[in-house]
Amino acid sequence: MPITPDTKDWTWVLQQPCQECGFDVRGCTPATVPGKLASMLPRWRAALRRPDAAERPDENTWSVVEYACHVRDVFTLFDHRLTLMLTEDDARFEDWDQDLSAVELDYANADPSRVGTELTTEGEQIAASFGRIPEDQWGRKGTRSNGSEFTVLTFARYFLHDVVHHLHDVDG
Length: 172
Description:
CATH topology: Four Helix Bundle (Hemerythrin (Met), subunit A)
Number of domains: 1
Oligomer: single chain
Radius of gyration: 16 Å
């Protein structure tokens, strides 16, 4: 059964700590993203090994496997967007319908072990991508089709909050 889509504009986390997960992105930089990701990947794999990883806690909440599929796909999508921001002036990218992806890619029936492997691979890839960004590139810009504007710095912060927040969702 599909989850009711989240229609919030989460860019507000760039100005203040998240009330739900407690994470404050304002101290993060592209240079700190790789280390933070490295610390979270084992926790994601551990969550996917839980016996109930494929079970939704209630009808309105994704299972651990569904959240992990989403995060895996966030890693892939954001790595692509980061490449655009670093190679194109004033890069533009389309909004992503994460809920449609969850249905089309059948997150609910994904194999937890396979998702753990894929999430790790994609997480290591985007960590490496962030790790290669020289500080003089942090101001490069990208804009989502809904008008949300990012620099590489704010993009890194927005990205990292998504990963931290969803780990909080599955740990909580």
